[in-house]
Amino acid sequence: MKLEDREYSFREMLAPAMKITEPKEATEYLEAMVQHNMERHGQSREEATHIQKSNLAFFAGYYDHETRLRVENMFGCIHPVFGAAVDGPMSPQKAFEMGALFGAGVE
Predict the structure, then answer these.
(1) pLDDT at site 102
(2) Which of 8, 36, 88, 99 has the greatest number of beta carbons closer than 10 A?
(3) DSSP 64-81
(4) How many domains, the chain?
(5) Which range marks the domain in which residue 56 is found?
């Protein structure tokens, strides 16, 4: 699989991954995303992989808990603000609090 040589919005790049349920397809899609970043933005494999995994986990945070669990498992990623989905669902209040702390630069 190869992504077109063009700029993608976050939604265009990440939304298809939220529907993936097969490990082989997840591996192929992540590789396509990494290759795209390497080719379009001159990133190393390590940098492109880190960025795409962070993006996947962050985007999955806008979906239900089951989707977040599946995405984190399929793509080997963890939400950069909320932490691992296996630690339990995120309540709207807790998500707001964590987001506010993150935005303020508090870890």
Answers:
(1) 81
(2) 36
(3) -HHHHHHHHHHHT--BTT
(4) 1
(5) 10-103
